[in-house]
């Protein structure tokens, strides 16, 4: 069996309880290599809980998570990040007063080689700026005037672009994106969707959490429908309509097969 | 990305309307800017510019009002000496204010540690270098206490340091028995404590080691804040702590390091203060906490955190020194010096608010 046959992420029987509330109720999760997997569900269905469990922001009480077939136990998203898993938060997690380059490297700055870096811990600003410019160029985002520009001077779409570029630059396995288009206008959403497809074209898988059905159906390869704390089914967007998906996720309809994709 | 509608077959119907629209994510239309907009932008990008301009203007103004005596090398170097101790406290205060905190206990830590150094070296006969190192350790520990209360017990910095200010002041009175250590006793038993009072003569100017220490302290901190990862993290934590945490910064650790370093710098200022004052008085620098905040605010560092340059605090301290010296030489009553400083603070904060409102 080649490595491509082993799913990138496979989670089985995940359970997370908060007191009497069961946020994740024996749920499964699967992400395949190089795909865009959309995760949809009603408010409170627990879709963000399951994604948090995958990236280490929550520690499940039961169940196992395998990444490329190997069991993992992340105690924080920073540990997940060390394995090449990046997250684009809904709030973006950018520092507004710092430059684009500074933001790209927050928490993993490059230091100068030799004495300056080792003893004076001097940052290698030219290298970081070069890298940041390169990454933004690759994603066609260099409408930005200067890489030293503070993030607060950028538009909403550009900020989203910087956050996605940061994730894409460092992710080797997959990126989780939480509602990347929720705060954007029509035009900017379009650009971010193109960006998501560009990232997939580079072989990086994406978990897309979104409420926006047209966006989900446009970019997703598979859709994971979450209901009442567990995975109800996965569907192929080509075989179902948006109203089917909404019916499944709200319980108005029950899917015939749990794994339709 | 010229024609979005062509490129994405999945685009929704509503987006068909985009076909004719401009397709860049966002363009920077060269919106017509007024002169005031320009000034606001320049200041936003260079937060130290305001204090530099104010310092230059006040130097010119007092040169005219107070005449030659003000510009004598002797007087200018005297201003440096007068601001050196508050300047060092302002350096420590800047670090904390950059993290959106505040430290009301800086001067209390400083005086307490100079009392510790004096007690050990002069009254108890401990070798002076050991007494000084003990003072440094005590200062760092006092800062760490503030940091732990703020990060682990999650108390607001203002309340925490209001409390520790009193605690440190009481400890200082207890350790010193409310008695000063006389200058002659220091000279006799521990002259090293007065090291930063030594000076070199340059023309008519008298440069004390304390002044040199202050300048070096600012340069070192400027380097750390701008050219190390730690410094970038200090700004990020002050700017938006949640974003900093999510992007992988251990914010608690950064805050602990900032408060501890500030405590250490206060102890260093305590050593320098012995040289500056000559004796060790538990009652000295009672207003130092607020004076350090004044220098930081006038220096253009935002009280909301994450914005401003530490060099601004040096200029802020100098502005206060220049005002005091200039008004004194011009023969103006002390109360008007206080009056002027008060307005400087208000104007500085108003300018900061205006700069922060800059539109992208």
UniProtKB/TrEMBL annotation, chain A:
Classification via PROSITE patterns: ABC_TRANSPORTER_2
Keyword annotations of the record: ATP-binding, Nucleotide-binding
A GO molecular-function annotation: ATP hydrolysis activity
Domain ABC transporter per the UniProt entry, residue ranges: 9-253
Pfam families: ABC_tran
PANTHER family cross-referenced by the UniProt entry: CARBOHYDRATE TRANSPORT ATP-BINDING PROTEIN MG119-RELATED, SUGAR ABC TRANSPORTER ATP-BINDING PROTEIN
UniProt name for this protein: Fructose transport system ATP-binding protein
Organism: Meinhardsimonia xiamenensis
UniProtKB/TrEMBL annotation, chain B:
CDD domains cross-referenced by the UniProt entry: TM_PBP1_transp_AraH_like
A Pfam family reported for this protein in Swiss-Prot or TrEMBL: BPD_transp_2
Swiss-Prot/TrEMBL keywords: Cell membrane, Membrane, Transmembrane, Transmembrane helix
The organism's place on the tree of life at top rank: Bacteria
CC terms in the record's Gene Ontology section: plasma membrane
InterPro entries given in the database record: ABC_transp_permease
Compartment(s) of residence: Cell membrane
Keyword flag Membrane: yes
Main subcellular location: membrane
Membrane topology according to the record: Multi-pass membrane protein
Transmembrane feature ranges: 48-66, 129-149, 155-175, 207-225, 254-274, 295-322, 334-355
GO molecular function ontology, one term from the record: transmembrane transporter activity
Protein name, UniProt field: Fructose transport system permease protein
Species assigned in the record: Meinhardsimonia xiamenensis
